[in-house]
């Protein structure tokens, strides 16, 4: 795992080596073990690299990695799990290798196929390839979007980096807030890709590669897309065959991700997905699996450590756990820095802490991320299916009754019911968005009137618009799974895991996001994912012998933070100081009166608004920190 950066100039200026080094060093947390750089003799391109050693720990595997004659140079962040098979084929065709690394495979494969070689790679990756004879830069990103890759584009220069903070070190790049991105952050808790919080800065989309030529022409292509069959085209499959197919592919996915020349362990939450991963690891590894979990003080509804211990005992792991207190909110500025802006998912707090804890013992962890996304584990998927069966008038009547009394706890069944019935007047896509949104119907009240007028119309469903043609004819469940896989998964879940692990120089691998498993699960009939109110049916059956019964039967908890209780208790004064300050910077874009009312309602117990308040605090702190980021960059 590594950090990569570089640029392609169009103005005949030679890239500045000092600038390249400054960009590269902004990524030192992603690769503390070694570094490298390459400046094209022709003057048009530059590559920078920071390395976290995982496979082939020798200097032979350092990057930028050349092919035999140096015509091709590669910088690469991630892991290629089929590199050994590809290497064997390349050697058979006469290619010479200098290392045992997966990176070198990419260089030689590009020689033969150009950018089309990306489709042959299985793994998680963000790649930059400089083709010296063609003076062409090629960027590529893995299928699910596990590894980040950003680019800045102007008339004079095209720059890229693993994280946006590297652009702040480049004096020729003008990084400024994109006001149009702000409303979407407050809907989703993140800015949906390929957009970002900053003008001229975009994400390379998952499953794509893009080539940048000397004249500035850019060729973007999808080499892979997730495909769900239309409801009328779903192929029948016997339950026993489906169970065997899921189990076989899951075991293979875990086994592929055990290749490492450094210590390896796993995150263990006590949920079904991470329990399955650890259970498979325990059968494939000779030494006890090193496992890590985290819980919260003061609210048992958010504490899964008892179930994690149950799984650890079952598989005889070398288990370590940590408990988070409200003092963990001190990490907020650190998390904003590593996310290059506000991030509304508060579970980044425990993810960062458990990553820091794990890094003391291992350099690589396997996770259960992606299981809910493939096998319909989130409760909103069940809600979407059920909501299509309930008459609208009935839903409105139930909501009127439930809304008279606020729920005592944000994770209570009453809170779930209020969210469910409160969306009954909306379309399916609107309901799906509302159930996962921070602000939706109340967004116009949140935004300052002058600010809202300056940015123009806001489309809460913009994030799914590009996917609409590919969702025609899908079942209700498949439609939601498709939208989730192309939005929430790459823009929230995988962002959080990457930034929080790499902030601590820890590599995270996700077996559930193996291509073969993704494609197999997508093609399965809905009843194997969700049946009679039970999610992940086929996954549970495939590993019934592995998952302890108490874990298999429990209600999904989710990896959250008890913000509601914290903001009424230990963090009450902190929240008030940040959000109620007369000179708070958010007031130029948001309604101070509305924010003050949110604080009052939460403290009075009239509503549980912990997540909304967290998003506002992150936004305010970012506005306070950003001038220092840019000033420090200009000074450097």
Radius of gyration, Cα only, in angstroms? 24 Å
Q: Give the biggest sheet.
A: 6 strands, antiparallel
Quantity of strands, as a count: 19
CA-based shape = globular
Provide the low-confidence segments as ranges: none
Give the neighbour order of strands across the main sheet. 2-3-1-9-8-10
Estimate percent helicity: 25-40%
The overall average pLDDT, rounded, is 92
Structural class: alpha+beta
Terminal-residue CA separation: 26 Å
How many helical elements?
A: 26
User: So what's the oligomer here?
Assistant: single chain
State which percent range the strand residues make up.
15-25%
Describe the structure.
Helices cover 40% and strands 15% of the residues. By secondary structure, it is of the alpha+beta class. A six-stranded antiparallel beta sheet has the order 2-3-1-9-8-10, covered by helices on one side. A six-stranded antiparallel beta sheet has the order 4-5-6-7-11-12, with helices on one face. Strands 15-14-13-16-17 form a five-stranded parallel beta sheet, sandwiched between helices. Strand 13 (264-267), helix 6 (272-284) and strand 14 form a beta-alpha-beta unit. It is globular and about 75 Å long. The two termini are 26 Å apart.
């Amino acid at each position: 795992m590594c950090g990569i950066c570089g640029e392609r100039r169009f103005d005949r200026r030679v890239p500045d080596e000092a600038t390249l080094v400054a960009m590269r060093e902004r990524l030192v947390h992603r690769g503390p073990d070694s570094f490298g750089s390459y400046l094209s003799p022709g003057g048009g391109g530059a590559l920078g690299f920071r390395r976290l050693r995982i496979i082939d720990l020798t200097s032979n595997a350092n990057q930028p990695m050349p092919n035999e004659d140096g015509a091709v140079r590669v910088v690469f962040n991630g892991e290629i799990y089929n590199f050994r098979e590809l290497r064997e084929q390349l050697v058979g065709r006469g290619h010479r290798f200098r290392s045992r690394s997966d990176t070198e495979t990419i260089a030689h494969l590009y020689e033969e196929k150009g950018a089309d070689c990306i489709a042959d790679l299985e793994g998680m990756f963000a790649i930059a390839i400089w083709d010296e004879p063609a003076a062409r830069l090629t960027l590529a990103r893995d299928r699910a979007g596990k590894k980040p890759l950003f680019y800045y584009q102007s008339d004079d220069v095209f720059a890229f980096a693993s994280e946006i903070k590297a652009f702040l070190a480049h004096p020729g790049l003008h990084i400024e807030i994109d006001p149009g991105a702000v409303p979407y952050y407050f809907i989703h808790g993140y800015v949906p890709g390929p957009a970002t919080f900053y003008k001229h800065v975009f994400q390379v989309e998952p499953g794509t590669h893009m080539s940048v030529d000397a004249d500035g022409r850019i060729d973007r292509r999808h080499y892979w897309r997730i495909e769900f069959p239309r409801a009328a085209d779903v192929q029948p499959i016997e339950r026993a065959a489906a169970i065997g197919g899921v189990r076989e592919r899951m075991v293979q996915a875990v086994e592929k991700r055990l290749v490492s020349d450094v210590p390896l362990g796993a995150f263990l939450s006590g949920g079904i997905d991470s329990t399955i991963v650890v259970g498979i690891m325990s059968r494939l590894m000779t030494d006890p699996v090193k496992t890590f979990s985290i819980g919260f003080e003061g609210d048992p509804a958010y504490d899964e450590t008892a179930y994690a211990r149950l799984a650890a005992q079952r598989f005889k792991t070398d288990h370590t756990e940590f408990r988070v207190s409200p003092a963990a909110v001190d990490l907020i500025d650190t998390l904003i820095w590593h996310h290059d802006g506000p991030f509304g998912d508060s579970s980044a707090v425990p993810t960062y802490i458990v990553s820091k804890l794990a890094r003391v013992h291992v350099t690589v962890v396997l996770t259960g991320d992606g299981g809910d996304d493939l096998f319909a584990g989130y409760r909103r998927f069940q809600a979407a299916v059920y909501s299509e069966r309930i008459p609208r008038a009935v839903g409105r009547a139930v909501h009127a009754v439930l809304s008279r009394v606020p729920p005592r706890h944000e994770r209570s069944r009453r809170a779930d019911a209020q969210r469910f019935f409160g969306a009954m007047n909306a379309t399916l896509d609107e309901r799906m968005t509302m159930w996962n949104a921070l602000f939706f119907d109340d967004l116009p009240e949140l935004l300052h009137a002058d600010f809202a007028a300056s940015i123009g119309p806001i489309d809460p469903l913009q994030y799914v618009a590009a996917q609409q043609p590919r969702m025609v004819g899908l079942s209700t469940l498949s439609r939601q799974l498709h939208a989730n896989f192309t939005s929430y998964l790459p823009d929230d879940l995988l962002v959080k895991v990457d930034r929080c692990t790499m902030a601590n120089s820890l590599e995270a691998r996700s077996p559930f996001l193996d291509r073969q498993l993704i494609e197999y699960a997508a093609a399965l009939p809905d009843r194997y994912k969700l049946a009679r109110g039970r999610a992940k049916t086929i996954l549970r059956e495939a590993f019934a012998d592995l998952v302890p019964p108490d874990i298999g039967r429990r209600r999904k908890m989710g990896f959250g933070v008890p913000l509601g209780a914290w903001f009424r208790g230990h963090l009450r004064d902190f929240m008030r100081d940040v959000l109620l300050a007369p000179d708070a910077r958010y007031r130029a874009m948001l309604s101070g009166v509305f924010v003050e009312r949110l604080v009052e309602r939460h403290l009075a117990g009239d509503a549980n608004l912990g997540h909304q308040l967290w998003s506002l605090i992150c936004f305010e702190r970012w506005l306070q920190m950003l001038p220092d980021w840019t000033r420090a960059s200009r000074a450097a």
